[in-house]
TrEMBL record:
Keywords, alphabetical: Acyltransferase, Cell membrane, Lipid biosynthesis, Lipid metabolism, Membrane, Phospholipid biosynthesis, Phospholipid metabolism, Transferase, Transmembrane, Transmembrane helix
Location relative to the cell: Cell membrane
Gene from which the chain derives: plsY
PANTHER family in the record: GLYCEROL-3-PHOSPHATE ACYLTRANSFERASE-RELATED (PTHR30309:SF0), INNER MEMBRANE PROTEIN YGIH (PTHR30309)
Signal sequence annotation: none
Protein name according to UniProt: Glycerol-3-phosphate acyltransferase
Biological process, per Gene Ontology: phospholipid biosynthetic process
EC assignment: 2.3.1.275
Amino acid sequence: MSFESLAMIPASFVLGSIPFGFLMAKFLGGIDIRKEGSGNIGATNVTRLLGWKIGFPVLLLDIAKGALPVLLAKYLFPDRTDILPLLCGISAVLGHIFSPFLKFKGGKGVATSFGVFAVLAPGSIMITLIVFLSLKKIFGFVSLGSIGGAIALPISYYSLSLIEGKNFNTPIFWATVSVSLTILFLHRTNLIRLVKGKEFTSDKEKYHRDQE
């Protein structure tokens, strides 16, 4: 790889590390999102506390943090196959999770991972999205949808590769596995709250009633 292509990887990390949820909650909502609700800087906690007018832009920006580095790597270095875009995408996810702007703490990487694989594995991400939305709709917990989606991602990628008869992309598959396991690990406290029946609901009004 050339110096220019290698430089895309740390640049992707920096882009991924921009804490849009923290910044928008701070400057538009007047709160430190890390000290409110679940303490997470992602769109779910922002939406739960401040509503969709702030939460939805955070969601879009977090998705873009994952998609943009992958798209740029594909466009600027089309001869690098999927390895460089994949490395840039994973780097962006790691930046989101370990943001140097927040003392190497950050979000759980769900939206940013969605952006990465929306470009690299669109078929799989559609199945993942359906699983996420279905679980959220049925049970009312974004965390449960995220957990289910994380499990569905590598399974759907592997299954679609067999069904469509395309060449199996081993690096992308193992990336889906790694991201899935990372998201599951970062949701371990959510799993505990779900089991105990104390998980935060995704409904803003119900959440605030529960806190009273």
